[in-house]
Specification:
Elements (H helix, E strand, L loop, with lengths): L8 E6 L5 H14 L4 E5 L5 H11 L8 H25 L3 E5 L2 H11 L4 H12 L6 E6 L2 H8 L13 H17 L4 E5 L4 H18 L3
Parallel strand pairs: 1-3, 1-4, 2-3, 4-5
The structure holds ligand Z5A.
Length: 214
């Protein structure tokens, strides 16, 4: 376990149209069925202040936002989220299931925008100290397939308006993290039909539950 708290911290990551929303409830149910008390949350967001920052980040009123500003706002929302919600829940022995976390900053602001990863690492250390997710499920699929799926949804947010090359870099950034940290980051082949994706998720979550003492 990479955090020294009582609960477990699980994050779910992926590019556009990877199916996070479609699978988060499924993961929550797997954990609840195993008797875990689950706090479900998301980034950017998760607290009233974090959700206000999310609106600034995803909305279209600041389209020319500087890359550094974007990164700092992600971490400002994260600092609030950790202090108000994530750490207190973990301290009480609850399991936190979070839709995106710091890997997204490395993938989107680092690989996608081109910000240096050592600057992201400094913020990670400053805001999180030693706290890292215990398990991360990375829903991975070819960019074109993900964009085709996401295209069926509503009005695109500020990130969804990026070009294909941006999402290719994001995907490569995520895969690089998974290659570096195979013990924590489990790749799920999200290009498959939902049922097959959920079988893979089931396998990973069940193994993690066993490893965590059931
Ligand atoms: N961001 C960042 O830059 N830096 C950071 O540090 C953090 C975040 C924390 C908001 O994220 C943005 O914040 C995000 C990165 C940035 N930008 N983008 N893009 P978000 O997580 O809130 O938004 P999202 O990426 O759009 O995720 P989402 O809403 O959870 O959706 P999704 O993963 O794209 O998937 P979905 O809505 O579940 O599925 C898309 C469609 O595909 C839908 O019609 C499904 O029915 C369909 N689907 C899903 N799975 C399947 C399968 N297996 N087969 C066929 N069809 C499927």
């Amino acid at each position: 376990m990479s955090n020294s708290l009582k609960g477990r911290f699980i994050t779910v990551e992926g590019g556009e149209g990877a199916g996070k929303s479609s699978n988060l409830d499924y993961i929550r149910n797997l954990l609840s069925s195993a008797g875990k008390q689950v706090v479900f949350t998301r980034e950017p967001g998760g607290t009233p202040l974090g959700e206000a920052i999310r609106d600034l980040l995803l909305g279209h009123q600041h389209t020319g936002m500087a890359d550094d500003t974007e990164l700092l706002l992600m971490f400002a929302a994260r600092a609030e989220h950790l202090q108000q919600k994530i750490k207190p829940a973990l301290q009480q022995g609850q399991w936190v299931l979070c839709d995106r976390f710091t890997d997204a900053s490395y993938a989107y602001q680092g690989a996608g925008r081109g910000l240096a990863s050592d600057r992201i690492a400094s913020l990670e250390q400053f805001v999180q100290g030693e706290l890292r997710p215990d398990l991360t499920l990375l829903l991975d699929l070819p960019v074109e397939q993900g964009l085709a799926r996401a295209g069926q949804r509503s009005e695109p947010d500020r990130f969804e308006k990026q070009e294909m090359s941006f999402f290719e870099k994001v995907r490569a950034g995520y895969l690089e993290i998974a290659a570096r940290e195979p013990h924590r980051v489990k790749i799920i082949d999200a290009s498959k039909p939902l049922e097959t994706v959920q079988q893979q998720i089931d396998h990973v979550v069940t193994a993690f539950l066993e490893q965590s003492g059931g």
